[in-house]
Sequence to fold (188 residues):
Amino acid sequence: MKITRLEIPEVCLVEPRVFGDRRGWFMETWRADLYRERVTPLPFVQDNLARSQKNVLRGLHAQHPHDQGKLVQVFLGEVYDVAVDIRRGSPTFGRYVSARLSGDNKRQLWVPPGFAHGYCVLSDEAVFGYKCTDTYHPENQFGIRWDDPEIHIDWPLDEAPILSDKDADAPLLAAIAPGRLPGFRSIV
Fold:
C-alpha cells in the first residue's frame, strides 16, 4: 500500500495493492493492523454506502462534537472528493485538498476528524463507500456551503450541481460560530 500525504499533511491518499490476473483482480480495502500503523490509530465503528448520479454534489459535511474521521473510496464510477480543514487555530484553516477517486484507480482518501467532507459525481453514476471513526449523530451534524468563496473549491462540474435542500441552504464557513467548530490539534 502506498501512502501519499497531501498539501494538508493530516489528509492522505491511500493506494492499496491490487493483484490482477485473467480472472479479474483482488485487493484488501482495509486491514486493522496495517491502517492503524500507516493511516490512523483511530478505530472505525461504522460503514456507509451511497449511490448517486452524475452532477450530484454531497457536502460539505462535518460533525462536532463526535467528529468523524472517514476513509472514503469509490467502488463504481468516479468522484471529485474534497476535505476542508475547519479546525479553529489550524495553520491550514479554510483550505482544502482534493483527489479523484474511482472504481478504476481504487484510491482511498483519509479525511481526519476536524475536516468537512464533500464530493461531486463525475461519472453517470457512482457507488461511494466510507468507514467512519464515530457513529452518525444528527444533532451534531452541520454543513458548509459547497461554493463558499473563501474556500474557493474548483469543482470540476460542467453544469449546476444537484444538491439536497440542506446542502443548498448551508451557511458559509465564516458564518458558523467558532464554538461550533472543532479546535486544532495536530494529528499527523
